[in-house]
Amino acid sequence: MRPYRSIFSPATTQERRDNFEDYWVYSQDHAGEILEGEKNLTRKRDALAKFRDRSIRVRKPLADPESFYRNYVRLVDDPRRLDRKTLLLTFIYKFARHEWAGISAVWDGIPTMGQSKSTTEKISRYHLCEEFCHIRLFHEMFRTFQLDQIEWIPLGRWMGGIYRYLPKLPESIMSPPAFVSELMGLTLYRHLDRLLDDILADEPEARDHIRSMLREIMIDELAHTGQRRNFIGPLGMAVSRGMVVPMFRMFYRDLPESKCLLDVDKMIEEAIAFDYNAMSPDVIAASWVPTYCRR
Description:
Layout: H1 13-31, E1 34-35, E2 40-41, H2 42-54, H3 65-71, H4 84-107, H5 119-144, H6 157-165, H7 171-199, H8 204-229, H9 234-253, H10 258-261, H11 264-272, H12 281-286
Antiparallel strand pairs: 1-2
């Protein structure tokens, strides 16, 4: 018998309540104390310092760095004419930019740790700090490619407004799309990991460095996916399942590089069928799984 179950497995209200407490204990043990003024966590800060201390850089910089800088915020060239390394990096930036814009917009709209009265409010604040730590890892990935002029550019007024409004929605409305967003990120990281062997075959040291940072993010995203699922009852899970296809297609339609890099249909299929057995044992061991998804 396989040790884990589907992320869509049913759970009672009491099971979900107990799992919030379990997740909160895990999070603090895993990522350390919150440094709220820095939007940081002590163990994540230390992990980033170790990655930076390695000072790993590609042996051969991009043949045309200007093509990256010309396309990283908005794709202006035909993606079929870009080399695959540049295409991968412009895609990663656009994905991470959405993450950065979302968490930046939400940060001032939720209670601080001092204002938080419940475990879930504390988790939400802590979760955002973890996401800011991920942006720092993405930034280090670009530095690995000797791309040191990256700027995190806000999204347009319309999209920024949506992100700022989200925390004001009732939890029952916000939870399904928030859960699917986490599932989308986790599915993407698994696919990016597979792409590394192909696109970075000629840069094994840099490839392994990128993979290690991606693994650090994936461990957190796996836990976040379980934690977000924990907010949702039976009706919400049915809604969530129905949102996978339209949310995936809408999001990746906005990232034109995805047509050249990803099999979105396959990612949708994997998301709908996702269970924890699909993850590598080392990632599972370092992450968190709800009790109702364990056998």
